[in-house]
Amino acid sequence: MVANAEKAFDELRAAVTREIKDPARAKQSVALVDEMDQIVAAADRDRKVHEARLRALNESYDSTPEQLRGAFRDYNALRNDWQARTLELNLRAKTLVTPAEWQALAKVREQAARKAAQIGAGL
Amino acid sequence: MLWALLALYIFGSSGTAPIVAAIDQVKDSVRADLVAPQRKAELLAIVERAEEATKEDLKSRGHGMKELLRVAHLHASKAADIQPLLQNMRTDTDAYQERMIGYRFELKDKMSREEWAKVFPPAAGANWKMDRGG
After folding, report:
1. Residue spans per domain, chain A
2. Among A15, A20, A45, B115, which one is most buried in terms of CB atoms within 10 A?
3. How many domains does chain B fold into?
4. pLDDT at A104
5. Is residue B56 part of a domain?
6. 3-state secondary structure of B51
7. Is-contact B34 B43, C-beta < 8 A?
């Protein structure tokens, strides 16, 4: 998954550099992609930690529902934070990129959205 | 691909994968070697309800995510357009997590400590503290 993520972000960086002709805005846009890259990497790490914690709680016969709820509460708080940061980047990108450039980048986004639909919502 | 990653990690994840996997393990174990037919049917009925809940959740979360990504892709969309969709997804996910916790404990409460240990030999998930570095 790390390799896929790197490939996806590299493709997006290339598309942004290609479609945004103004060097200053292109540079700022690539920086947003870098931030997104970091968020996805952090989300990947956080999810692995959460899943290991949940597996351990599940295996224990003595775990309580409240302990599992606690694990989900912690995870949901992290997830909400990734989501908030991702949406903030989405909105910042829209202020940086013109509607025409946004449209030109649409093909990359549409291909990605189709892939997302194939994967569906992860468990 | 980028949005696939966002779907998987940022917006689409309910964090329930280990519980879904655990319920699957119980199902295999019950089918293979657990107990009297009546008890087997009782346990499998819980597994079936959990599977149905997961199916419904995946479908609903898939729709929610598709709509969320559609709106987020619009250049003109604002936070106020996106937040309600996100909130709906969070509410649905909270409810699904709670349902899965419920099914996990329904199963556990109908199994002895020995049966549980047979399905989940202690060790595999015991190192979460090490995994997070402390």
Report:
1. 2-119
2. A20
3. 1
4. 84
5. yes
6. helix
7. yes
Judge whether A82 and B5 are in contact, CB under 8 Å.
no
Among candidate residues A48, A50, A14, A51, the one with its CA nearest the CA of residue A30 = A14
B24-55 tens-digit pLDDT:
988 988 888 766 788 888 999 999 999 999 99
A5 interface with B at CB cutoff 8 Å = yes
pLDDT tens by residue, B81-104: 999 999 999 999 999 999 999 999
B101 lies in a domain? yes
- The ipTM value here is 0.85
Angle at B95 between CA B79 and CA B71, to 5 degrees: 25
* Residue B47 maps to a domain: yes
| Chain B: closest CA distance from residue A31 (Å) | 15
Statement: the pTM of the whole predicted model exceeds 0.90:
no
Q: Chain A 16-35, CB below 8 Å of chain B: which residues?
A: none
Chain B nearest-CA distance from A22, in A, is: 19
Report how far apart, in Å, the C-alpha atoms of B96 and of each of A5, B13, B43, B103 are: 28, 12, 20, 11
Looking at the domain assignment, is residue B2 inside a domain?
no
